[in-house]
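quick one before i forget lol
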Amino acid sequence: MGSETFQYQGRELDMFAHAKRWKAYWASNLRKWVYGDVLEVGAGLGVNTILLQNHTVRSWHCLEPDAELGSHLNAAIANLQLCSATRGTIRSMTERRFDSILYIDVLEHIASDHDEIAMAAGLLRPGGHIIVLSPAHQFLFSNFDASIGHYRRYNRRSLRACSPSGCNLETIFYLDCVGVFMSLANRILLRQSTPTLKQIQTWDSHVVRISQFFDPLLGYRFGKTIVGVWTRC
């Protein structure tokens, strides 16, 4: 996703916007690191922008390289007084500094992920955070991943390898332990390039609910989504 003329090849964002339980679940696990001046890289339709707003946010800037998504994004955040958006990538952000930089289902779309995180670290204030949420486990890589432009899925080792100089890795954990088995079934049996809305609603209504119970019991050590947080020294 390094080009300023990037065009997103997936069209699943509208469907996943219906996964309200899932979004509320992961947001509740990330929100404590989202404060001050926030940069959201690859903001898409603006659904996550709205979801993560909280009283500790001073300003929120969205980056979205896709022109079509950018038009939807601008409409979505029009009534959020603290929010602004530009079309581009992190390479276009050279002057401002931030307290929180977000990559929500974005880093897996970027070929040079290590370079991307290094550039993000250069935009952080001391004590600021880079927050990454991405699909987990390369053995779950499916036709769906390929169809929406994923280069990879992550585990603890591969996400840790993205650690930038000048930052400490504060935490890595997994979410949605039961979802692993649903994703594995899709990879081996269904081999779908795009899930149906009904499948997303079933996962969101039932699977995520069960994962919310079991994830803490497992110590957040297993799941189909991985979260990593770095803190600027």
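fyi The mean pLDDT is 92.
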